[in-house]
Write a structure and sequence with these properties.
Layout (H helix, E strand, L loop, with lengths): L25 H13 L6 H14 L3 E5 L2 H11 L7 E4 L6 H8 L3 E4 L11 H7 L4 E5 L10 H11 L2 E2 L1 E2 L21 E4 L12 E5 L2 H11 L23 H12 L1 H19 L22 E4 L6 H10 L5 E2 L8 H7 L7 H9 E4 L7 H16 L1
Parallel strand pairs: 2-3, 2-4, 4-5, 6-7
Antiparallel strand pairs: 1-8, 7-8, 9-11, 10-11
Helix pairs in contact: 1-8, 2-8, 3-4, 3-7, 9-13, 10-13
The structure holds pyridoxal-5'-phosphate.
């Protein structure tokens, strides 16, 4: 099953088009079977191998494999010293896990508004949210577009803040200075859920420069056990955030096809751009600018202001096209309103984007015919 998508043009014109679909093949099957035959299902040799290959691919000094992106964010915030009562400045336009991770340590996620073009945390807004309780910045490379790290690094230097980067959606992204996302030295967290550029089903990776921090992260993911300690010896509080060997084997196989996956995603994004051009009021994902390069993860459009998003979702579904409002504003989720007293109007750019955004089907094996069908369904939904 090398490449699980149907050949271009082969799909029936009415077959449902899913939002996402991983690119898996014989290499992944072989890798998983090898682990099963080896009998080493956890804490085996594939963990370090996956970490080394991933660090080399990104250009980072070290990498630690973890059970999920969420687990990675939690361990990374602990590693940089975030604790009870601290404030962590982050984006309200993200998957909820980036803010939740601060709450796990009884720190407070403090939101600041986003840039209307890149949809990433806006550095000046973030700077205005910093106060004496702030200990860390948590920028998110949303939808795979690189956050403005040079500005966040300057802000962090001015106020002696730590940085943890949420790159769960951004494998393959590169900053204007040529440094890949994940290679700047700060703990940077990637996610390997099934819709990601590289998937292990569930999983994540933290890349970083500091070997001591890696040691702490590796111990805390393994119940607080240092590498030289025996089973059932624990010298600090830890968690079970390990990534099993089957997942690491999948990750190694996925890494080998990463260039292929990223190129396919970029190609599909370019096709979407052509096919959806000219629909009045429809805003497409921002193009790469100023030397920054997106690692394509999702294709999220902003619907025209007057469009009824629920109606559009229904009209697409009637033509077999899955879509999803993506992402909701974190500060307006009920838990965040109740816990922190957030109200509509606090972050107007984020709120408008969250109200208009819609993710369209986007996966590496998507055919030209499927892109054309989605575009046609969008035209019918918005123009007719
Ligand atoms: C921006 C962002 N942060 C964090 C996560 C959490 O990753 P995981 O689902 O692997 O825990 C995700 C995953 O969807 C994400 O998109």
């Amino acid at each position: 099953m090398e490449g699980s998508g149907a050949p271009p043009g082969a799909e029936p014109a009415t077959a449902p088009i899913p939002l996402a679909q991983p690119l898996l093949g014989e290499a992944e099957e072989r890798a998983v079977v090898e682990v099963l035959r080896s009998g080493r299902l956890s804490l085996g040799p594939r963990v370090a191998r996956f970490e080394q290959l991933f660090a080399a691919r990104v250009g980072a000094g070290h990498a630690s494999a973890v059970a999920s992106g969420t687990a990675g964010l939690h361990l990374a915030l602990r590693a940089v010293g975030v604790e009870h009562g601290d404030e962590v400045v982050t984006s309200p336009f993200s998957f909820v896990a980036s803010a939740n991770a601060a709450i796990y340590e009884r720190a407070r996620p403090v939101f600041a508004d986003i840039d209307p073009v890149t949809l990433n945390l806006e550095p000046a807004a973030a700077a205005a949210a910093v106060n004496e309780r702030t200990t860390a910045l948590l920028p998110v490379h949303i939808f795979g577009y690189p956050a403005e790290m040079a500005a966040f690094e300057a802000l962090a230097r001015r106020h002696r803040l730590a940085i943890v980067e949420d790159a769960c959606e951004a494998l393959g992204a590169v900053h204007a200075d040529g440094v890949a996302v994940g290679a700047r030295g700060h703990p940077t967290v990637f996610g390997f859920y099934a819709n990601k550029q590289l998937t292990t089903g569930e999983g994540g990776m933290i890349t970083l420069a500091d070997a001591e921090l890696k040691e702490r992260i590796d111990s805390e993911r393994n119940q607080g056990r240092a590498p030289d300690m025996d089973w059932l010896d624990h010298d600090r509080l830890g968690f079970n955030y390990r990534l099993p060997d089957v997942a690491c084997a999948l990750g190694i196989a996925q890494l080998a096809r990463l260039d292929e996956t990223l190129a396919a995603r970029a190609r599909i994004a370019a096709r979407y751009r052509e096919a959806l051009g000219g629909i009045e009021g429809l805003q497409l994902p921002c193009a790469d600018a100023n030397g920054d390069r997106r690692g394509w993860f999702v294709f999220v459009v902003q619907l025209p202001r007057e469009a009824d998003r629920g109606e559009v979702v229904r009209a697409l579904a009637a033509r077999g096209v899955q879509s999803k409002p993506y992402l909701p504003a974190i500060h307006l989720m009920s838990f965040y309103r109740e816990r922190f007293g957030h109200r509509p109007g606090e972050f107007p750019v984020c709120e408008e984007v969250a109200a208009r955004s819609l993710a369209l089907p986007f996966f590496p094996a998507m055919s030209e015919g499927q892109v054309a069908r989605v575009a046609e369904a969008m035209r019918v939904a918005l123009v007719c």
